[in-house]
Amino acid sequence: MTSNVKITRMDPELEAFIPSFPPAELTDPVTARKNLAELAAAAPAPDTTGMEIEDRTVPADPGVPVRIYRPHRAHGAIVWLHGGGFVMGDLDTEHPWAVRVAGGSGAVVISVGYRRAPEHRFPAALDDACAALAWTAGHAAELGIDPGRIAAGGHAAGAGLAAAVALRARDQQGPPIRFQLLSQPELDDRQGTWSARNFTDTPFMTRAKVTASWRHYLGSAPASPHAAPARAGDLSGLPPAYIATAEFDPNRDEGITYALRLLQAGVPVELHQWPGTLPRVASDLVGGGVPAADRRARRRPAPCPRRLRWSRPAMPQPADGPGKRPGDQLRRAVHAHDAPIPRQQRRLRLAHVQPVHRLRAAGRPNRIEHELYRVA
Q: What pTM did the predictor assign?
């Protein structure tokens, strides 16, 4: 049984973004792709200063187009998978997000133009993503990265694919993945959570749109754990994860549940629930966008939400002293202590955390930089 819960706590200034969202439907994939492409083309061009960008094709059957973003002095990489309900999106529509991830993390970003449904149903997109991961690991020297510091990430359907890539890499002894970055992941075709049953008519992402997304992706085939990662019975042995969810997203609770299940399986997780937000806006927050939020932060404070996170024990200060910028000390410590942390030393805590726009207004680095220290 489903119901439509009225949204009463949306961030008032973020409501201004709603008219710019594409229609919340996937009945006609061609029209949906056209609408998203027009929206992306109208956005301001991102700042690519100090970044090399190159289009390549990963040898596979068929070849997989990728776009490589190389910040100066990058050492790690992230295989990045665009959103779009498995139906929309491509290298061009994902360009602004890929630039933000590369610039914020200092990691090489391999943006993947995977095959889309319904023309190419599961497992086509997953096969392409795994081919890109294997290619990245095999060409680490050419890319100037450490093959042991490769992450997988994405948002929405792309985050679901990234989770599936991690599962397949574990199950089939694929290239090791250092970290998962899952922004509002689409993980469960069953749509049985509270948010899926109650946020049925929210802007941009409705229950009908999610249903159409899975129908296009799976066709008449039953879902497997590699298609819908929430169906996986065993989540142990997966890489550490950062998971972000949006308060008014039908997929919110499946992301939160997946984070808790990872924790219960012994996987380090940081879970951040963005209050008062919709899916697309939360993607911008994780990626470093939403300038309106920056403007508001300079005018008045926002309430402090809570987030659920794993925190590691305090790490020793490196011999050469603190870093010159926030996080350098943590970066060195993470790479100097690769041994697993004993479970009894981990602790789950609730912490007051300011929204990302307040952190940025205070002069602190973008959140993506923090989440990918173990990679870059």
A: 0.77
